[in-house]
Design goal:
The complex is a heterodimer of chains A (114) and B (117). Chain A is built from no helices and 12 strands. Chain A is an all-beta fold and 114 residues long. In chain A, a hairpin with a 4-residue loop joins strand 8 (64-69) and strand 9 (74-79). Chain A starts with a strand and ends with a strand. With 117 residues, chain B is mainly β. In chain B, a hairpin with a 5-residue loop joins strand 7 and strand 8 (74-78). Classes of the chains: A mainly beta (114), B mainly beta (117).
Chain lengths: 114, 117
């Protein structure tokens, strides 16, 4: 069974600064997807960024980028130029290509301070 | 494009009762997944429906059951409610089949918060 671990329950960052959220996972699969989802107080999970395991290049989406280390089974999220609207719970998630179900970590609560 | 909608948004039940939660998938999506999110935790996979059939199930007892209708909307039913069933229940839709597997992306609703007293 796959597991996803987020070791930072809470983090805080000043507006306009950069913050990195950590995630490690455990799997015996070779082909899979990794995701970061954001869950604001509105409760709706919003996809932030996606990485396909077979791609060596790290995914980027505007201010969001990942550091994907497949051998180390590490998948961290970097948020640059943090904005107040980035305040939310962030979940790292794993999906193998066969099971079609997401396995989530326990989340990191990010607070962006003005 | 209509997003994923869930109803009701909040509800309170007592132990032993039954509950039905509803989900309308995003337009064009034929796959619906349900997740349970206990307070302060990440969501856990309950099951998935693809073209009206169960297409994968997590570690949940049989009193958690579901349906998917021809229009791809879905219901989650929970019988004999227990206190530990109190949680946010999230529905997510996607485009199943090869295209859906290639993207892996799920689109979530805002959830139904169930409180069991």
């Amino acid at each position: 069974a796959q597991t996803v671990t987020q070791s930072q329950p809470e983090m805080s960052v000043q507006e306009a600064e950069t913050v990195t959220l950590s995630c490690t996972y455990d799997t015996s699969e070779n082909n899979y997807y990794l995701f970061w989802y954001k869950q604001p107080p509105s409760r709706q999970m919003i996809l932030v960024i996606r990485q396909e395991a077979y791609k060596q290049q790290n995914a980027t989406e505007n201010r969001f980028s990942v550091n994907f280390q497949k051998a180390a089974k590490s998948f961290s999220l970097k948020i640059s130029d943090s904005q107040l609207g980035d305040t939310a719970m962030y979940f790292c998630a794993f999906m193998d290509t066969g099971r079609r179900a997401l396995t989530f970590g326990s989340g990191t609560r990010l607070q962006v301070q003005p | 494009e209509t997003g994923v909608t869930q109803s009701p948004t909040h509800l309170i039940k007592t132990r032993g009762q039954q509950v039905t939660l509803r989900c309308s998938s995003q337009s064009g999506h034929n796959t619906v997944s349900w997740y349970q999110q206990a307070l302060g935790q990440g969501p856990q996979f309950i099951f998935q429906y693809y073209r009206e059939e169960e297409n994968g199930r997590g570690n949940f007892p049989p009193r958690f059951s579901g349906l998917q209708f021809p229009n791809y909307s879905s219901e989650l039913n929970v019988n004999a409610l227990e206190l530990d069933d109190s949680a946010l229940y999230l529905c997510a839709s996607s485009l199943g089949g090869l295209a859906g597997l290639n993207t892996g992306e799920l689109f979530f609703g805002e959830g139904s918060r169930l409180t069991v007293l």
